[in-house]
Design brief:
- By secondary structure, the protein is α+β, with helices and mostly antiparallel strands.
- It folds into 3 domains: about 140 residues, Serine Threonine Protein Phosphatase 5, Tetratricopeptide repeat; about 270 residues, TolB, C-terminal domain (Neuraminidase); about 110 residues, Carboxypeptidase-like, regulatory domain (Immunoglobulin-like), CATH 2.60.40.1120.
- Strands 2, 3, 4, 5 and 6 form a 5-stranded antiparallel beta sheet that branches. Strands 7, 8, 9, 10 and 11 form a 5-stranded antiparallel beta sheet that branches. Strands 16, 17, 18, 19 and 20 form a 5-stranded antiparallel beta sheet that branches.
- α5 runs antiparallel to α6.
Length: about 550
Amino acid sequence: MILIKKTVVSTILLGCFLLFLPMVNAQSPRKLIREANELINLELYDEAIEKLTPLIQKEHPEALLLKGFALMAQEKMDQAISVLEKTMPNYPLENGKNVAAIEAHFYLGQAYRLNENPDKALKEFEKLKQVVVDKQLKADIEQEIQYCLNMKELMAHPVSIRIEHLGEVLNSKYEDHSPITLYDESTIYFTSTRPINEDDNEGAYFENIFVSHWRNNGWTKPKVLKIPGYKNVNRATVGLTPDGQGLIFFQNDGLNGALFISRKTFDGWGEPEPLPQPVNSGYNETHASFSPDGNTIYFSSERPGGFGGKDIYYSHRLPDGTWGKPINAGENINTEMDEEGPFIHPDNKTLYFSSTGHNSMGGYDIFKSTKTEKGWSKAENIGYPINSPSDDVFYVPTPNGQRVYFSSRKEGTIGQSDLFLLHFPEDNERSMAVVSTHIFNSQNQPAEKAVIYIINSKTNERLGAYKVNPTTGKLVTIIPSFQEYKLLIECEGHQPYSQNFKLGMKDDYKSKNRAIYLPAITLKPKLDNTQDNNNINN
């Protein structure tokens, strides 16, 4: 599954104009165009353009139109616009019956929008709107007009950001996308179609998951993640469990796809298991994100009963460890169009997701919604230039929201899509802290049965109930800085444990490897009820 979405180009009419090709004495133009059209359907755009070269040199109208489409599909918008403008005089909009003319002007309007020129795009779509009679096509034109109006509004109030290309160590000439990192940014996982064997030059492979580590102020050379299971399947990164020890990924064998999880062990990665029902439903589920305490999962699904297309749902873990009935996130998040890529921030209140609805500026845009006492707030577009006229799907910010790892097909990439890091100004900091410790039972083994509560000492608000990693005993949590807390541990057969700690100004999460480590805790065996009560009260 390619998680990086390709340029949104309408294919309503692609190929239809072949029916309108003029008969010529030599059949070669018709044959060349038909063959080029077949190459485009296979996404072999350069080969299609090469096939059309003899006709392009003669400024053949249909050949120019196909070349413009192929350039758009490769997101070479400046070149596409130049080609399409050149052939426009051959396609006057005289009436609504000229299919090729409608197609040509629709492509040009889309190219203008995708090139961030909404004013020119609006002119093309308004002209089309006057002559088109087909209801579906008219609706598509209205949607394009709305995209342009949304774009003008968002571009008028740009967000201040800095974009950093993550370099040749991580990126390749192939598809590199869907990056996710540990909370401390010491490890990055991403999806790539590069060959597993460097000496293999036969071209793009199945999607595989690669891993790199931050060492000596730089990323190590990526290596394929060795997860047991099927060979020759597409696997794409989706998310991590809160402790960073479980990797969620989408697996597709070419027929069906579902969400799986593999957990880290001392020997590598364990056998992947499908996420249980009702998360995987037999319909299309593509993305998932756990809450910081691991007790809620947010996911996108095409299952029936939603608002339309893909919707975002969430499910709570029940006391017996199973997952409860999925709850639709509601009309403030979901629309009659598609919603994708949910990511719940470590603050456990902010949900990031992608949508083709709301006030998108074209295709998928990134939105956010905040959990309130009344439910989820109305979706808010996170703004331009984070969002673009093309699809923007995978958005995973660091705990303080200061940085976002993402992938893009923007010009200047090494390959088809590259990995980038987005930086916000310092005054946008959320001031969150990564807190970690190790908890062991009285036999000095990981206290896997322990339940850990973190409570705000001032408000008495319980931030969550956590579990340690059963293999290492490690606890990792993300909580607001500038606060005082109580750490409370309950474990069957052991005395309750409590500890107070404070997070100050220097503890907020600003850079890689910045985490607060509390001393390791070893629980004492349970003695009697009196001592239990004394421990809780201390």
